[in-house]
Write a structure and sequence with these properties.
about 130 residues; mainly alpha; 6 helices
Length: about 130
């Protein structure tokens, strides 16, 4: 969480990027470039605003709910969890960008599955001198 853009130490190969991305995929679920297959997908939950709207309505029905959450530390914990999810998503995107600049294949680079373009088409496009 402290520095999601920190460059990984040592020689960075495609295999090393896969090693770094895999735990993030397991913790966060499918990335934005892949279809979600798990209904408990953390990134998918982050996209849904309907639950937060319902929570906002119900919180008004419970007297002093905000104070209880503040005093018990639940509110601070929720903010910490959200910050960790955001940092993990940013880290995964950064690592996949490094992988794409090196010509790696998925999961060390975005899969572009949702765009309908194949990995072969992705490799054929011009790189504009980025390496």
């Amino acid at each position: 969480m402290a520095d999601p853009y920190a460059r990984p130490p040592g020689k960075l190969s495609c295999a090393r990027i896969v090693e770094l991305v895999t735990p993030l995929d397991q913790a966060l679920g499918a990335d934005l470039d892949e279809p979600s297959v798990d209904e408990d997908d953390v990134m998918e939950k982050g996209r849904g605003g309907a639950l937060s709207a319902v929570a906002g309505v119900t919180s008004g029905a419970i007297p002093f709910r905000g104070w209880v959450r503040q005093l018990t530390g639940a509110q601070r914990h929720d903010r910490l969890v959200q910050a960790a999810i955001l940092a993990g998503g940013v880290r995964r995107g950064y690592l996949k960008g490094l992988g794409e600049s090196r010509g790696c294949g998925p999961p060390a680079t975005p899969s572009h599955l949702l765009t309908g373009r194949s990995v072969v088409e992705q490799k054929r496009r011009p790189r504009y001198g980025i390496r």
